[in-house]
């Protein structure tokens, strides 16, 4: 009985920002005292879900409801307190307090200050080394200019569904806040699931017909696979193009065993780690 009381105490003090991130939700804007999210409890286009970084409390202005970390899990998963505690027993990394949140918010951040059509010669050359045509890259990506620790940089950028950016150049791989998956919607009953930016661009080069009339999710991190999987029930078919490595193969196997509509498409690049590795090999053979 005492163990249950302690568990409830710890659950109530869960870092709300970290809990939301664990389920794929990131702030639209942040100040020193609060963070604003699109509500994880309902559909909306303007962020009205507030988290106090000082009190570590949340409040959804759209439904007039708020609370602590445990309340949030119960509301998000639509479960009982007991079920929420069972869920959290396997999520020990969620246990952190508001002081750590404030410290994290003060860390250096990437600041995007210009978004434009890809034109920098260094980025065009980088695309060439990955065997991606400029027209393909310009269709899906932008050239992003950003600052970090007082210095300015440029990179290829793929926008995510929370308006953050995945950033890539020859020397740098990162993302601007908020970190999230990218969702390209075509109002389709067919979904394609990819790991990263260059998987998307390589698929467009190798198998462009696969992208016609399909919705596409680029995970940008395998950590988003769990929250994204809740969308699978909305589709007749979900095609996985996860990497041919231990993590990708494990996740593909797990998803196929749980969802009847999921198919593993990694056979299309069998013998290669990912789609881009196959693309580079195919283009090299044609040049010989």
From TrEMBL:
SUPFAM superfamilies (UniProt xref): Zinc beta-ribbon (SSF57783)
GO molecular function: DNA binding; zinc ion binding
Top-level taxon: Bacteria
InterPro entries recorded: DNA_primase_Znf_CHC2, TOPRIM_DnaG/twinkle
Annotated GO biological process: DNA replication
Name the UniProt record assigns to this protein: Toprim domain-containing protein
Organism expressing this protein natively: Gillisia hiemivivida
């Amino acid at each position: 009985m005492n163990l249950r009381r302690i568990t409830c105490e710890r659950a109530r003090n869960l870092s709300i920002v970290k809990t939301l991130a664990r389920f794929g939700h990131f702030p639209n804007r942040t100040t020193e005292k609060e963070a604003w999210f699109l509500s994880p409890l309902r559909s909306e286009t303007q962020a009205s879900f507030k988290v106090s970084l000082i009190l570590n409390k949340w409040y959804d202005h759209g439904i007039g409801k708020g609370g602590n970390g445990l309340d949030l899990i119960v509301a998000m998963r639509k479960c009982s307190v007991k079920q929420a505690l069972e869920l959290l027993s396997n999520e020990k990394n969620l246990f952190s307090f508001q002081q750590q949140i404030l410290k994290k918010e003060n860390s250096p951040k990437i600041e995007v200050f210009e978004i434009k059509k890809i034109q920098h010669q260094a980025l065009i050359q980088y695309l060439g080394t990955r065997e991606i045509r400029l027209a393909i890259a310009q269709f899906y990506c932008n050239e992003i200019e950003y600052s970090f620790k007082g210095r300015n940089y440029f990179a290829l950028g793929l926008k995510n569904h929370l308006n953050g950016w995945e950033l890539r150049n020859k020397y740098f791989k990162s993302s601007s806040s908020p970190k999230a998956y990218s969702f390209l919607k075509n109002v389709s009953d067919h979904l394609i699931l990819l790991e990263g930016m260059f998987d998307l661009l390589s698929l467009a080069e190798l198998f462009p017909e696969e992208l016609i009339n399909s919705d596409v999710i680029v995970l940008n991190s395998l950590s988003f696979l769990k929250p994204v999987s809740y969308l699978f029930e909305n589709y007749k078919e979900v095609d996985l193009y996860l990497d041919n490595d231990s993590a990708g193969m494990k996740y593909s196997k797990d998803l196929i065993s749980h969802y009847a509509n999921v198919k593993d498409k990694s056979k299309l690049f069998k013998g290669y780690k990912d789609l881009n590795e196959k693309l580079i090999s195919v283009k090299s053979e044609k040049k010989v």
